[in-house]
Amino acid sequence: MIRYALPLLFLAAPALAQSVGDCGHLAAAAYIAEPWGQNTATFANGDVRVALIDTMEPAAAAVHLLVLSPPRDEIGERQCRFVSLSRSEGGGPIGFFDIDFAAHEAAYDPAQGLVLTMPMAVYVPETGGGEPAELTVTINQSTGEIRAEVAGS
User: Fold this and answer.
1) What is the mean pLDDT of residues 97-123?
2) What Rg do the C-alpha atoms of the chain give, in angstroms?
3) pTM value?
């Protein structure tokens, strides 16, 4: 996935950190990266679904993950969380430069829950490209906690 962006987007940005927040308008089905069959996956007998989201803009930070997982609410809906690189000062998500969703790996740790790892990239304004890193998302179905960590950036 090649992305082009205005380097000015990140010149004044503070150090970025990963964030997990509630789903909002960017979690709409229209933003699930095509082809859907290659950019979504289910785990835990279908209780957990993860999808690659591509909002197209800003081009240097348009990629996120959507996570649907237990616990379920009173009508049976799963919680919906949006994994991004960070949140802007205004509260909106700033995404990753790229995520190689097809290369994701999944493991189960009884103490933590479902652990997903995948190669990703963080935008580097000086080069106009992405710096490789690894995203780890841990989903604890029992507590509902979802954590994200970026290593190597």
Assistant:
1) 96
2) 15
3) 0.84
Element (H, E) at 115: strand 113-124
The residue with tokens 């009884």 is 110
Q: Residue 16 — pLDDT band, cuts 50, 70, 90?
A: very low
Q: Look at 21-30, 67-76, 104-113 and tell me which has the smallest mean pLDDT.
A: 21-30
Beta strands in 19-101 (DSSP E): 19-22, 40-43, 48-54, 63-72, 78-84, 86-87, 93-94, 98-99
- 3-state DSSP assignment of residue 60: helix
- Coil, strand or helix: which one is 66? strand
Report, as an integer, the average pLDDT of 30-40.
95
Q: How far is CA 70 from CA 46, 67, 77, in A?
A: 11, 10, 8
DSSP state, residue 38: H
According to DSSP, residue 77 is labeled: P
Half-sphere exposure of 80 (CA within 13 A, CB side): 11
Q: Is the predicted pLDDT of residue 9 greater than 50, yes or no?
A: no
Tell which residue, 75, 93, 121, has the closest CA to residue 31. 93
- Per-domain residue ranges for the chain? 17-151
CA-wise closest residue to 66 among 107, 109, 36, 108: 36
